[in-house]
Amino acid sequence: MHEVLQDWDGENALLSFDARTGSHLFIALHSRRLGPAAGGTRLKTYPTPADGLRDATLLARAMTYKMAVAGLPMGGGKSVLAVPGELSPADRHHLLVQHARNVETLNGSYSTGPDVGTSSVDMDVLHEYTDHAFGRSPARGGSGSSAPDTAVGVFHGIRAAVAHVNGDAALTGVRVFVQGCGAVGEPLVGMLVDAGAVVEVSDVVPERVDMLVRKYGVSAAPPDTINVECDVYSPCALGQVIGAAEVPLLRCRIVAGAANNVLVSPDDGERLRQAGILYAPDFVINAGGAVHLIGYEGLGWDSDRVAAGLVGIGATLAQIFTAADAHGISTDRAAERVAEARLESAPAHGRTLSR
Ligand code: PPY
Description:
By secondary structure, this protein is an alpha/beta fold. It contains 12 helices and 12 strands. It has helices spanning about 1-5, 50-70, 90-105, 120-125, 145-165, 185-195, 205-215, 265-275, 280-285, 290-300, 305-325, 330-345; strands spanning about 10-20, 25-30, 35-40, 40-45, 75-80, 110, 175-180, 200, 220, 230-235, 255, 280. It starts with a helix and ends in an 11-residue tail after the last helix. The mean pLDDT is about 95. Bound molecules: 3-phenylpyruvic acid (PPY). 3-phenylpyruvic acid binds next to helix 2 and helix 10.
């Protein structure tokens, strides 16, 4: 675990262990340069506790860059609840309470929200013990699931990428492979089909694939394949799907999906560029969830303002694609430069949320 922290450039990490459930609880607070840190709580089983901590630290860094590029006045953080396996409802509740207490000790320098393995209902539980949980259910005063708006942001991003490659954002007849059809992937499939795209889907849960095939008339690819011939490959499940071994297998012109940390390493961005594949940087294209949560709950935006923020994801990507071409660098690097410029123009010391 110390090695994980030595390899990381974040501000602070909170590590604890819950004996009742055998779970490790991690909060990684990467940067508060642009405001108090925020980022979701991921609940999942990892091969080792150090893998969970590494995931938290890398995801927290991605949140810093996501907020910076999206122009949101927040820093980056992320939580990981590394569970040994499926928990009983009572144990899961217990673990969430422990997590809420940890969040509360940070006094607002970090706020959480839903992520892979957690939902609005879990945020309702956290909120009983801390004020610093975004994404509660509407019945409990929250803005509800951010997943549909994440899908809207990805949809705008796919259009921007198609426009950059084809000179036209129209999706009619464009072949899109959506890998992972959960809370974000499914609404994305619906929007793509409505826009006339030819959609192929895959998921680790066969019933989900069957449902989408019936509901939208899309075709199905086996899970774990990435060499699907298409125009746009849209990874919407877990990250780390594109490494040195995968780039040569890809049969697409564009990679544009909702998953966090899609690339195994930053070098993979350059590998994609050299392969002639346009990559929509994950922390730019998947910012719709953050726009939704921070917009509605942190900044008091109405739905028109949030919708404009989601459209802005496409516009920002178009600028990043153009800048990458102009400088002969990967789109990932071009997006990092946008984030780094915003971060460098901010005061060096983190601020705490005053409300
Ligand atoms: C993400 O975009 O990956 C998030 O974690 C979204 C988020 C943003 C702000 C607070 C909590 C979760």
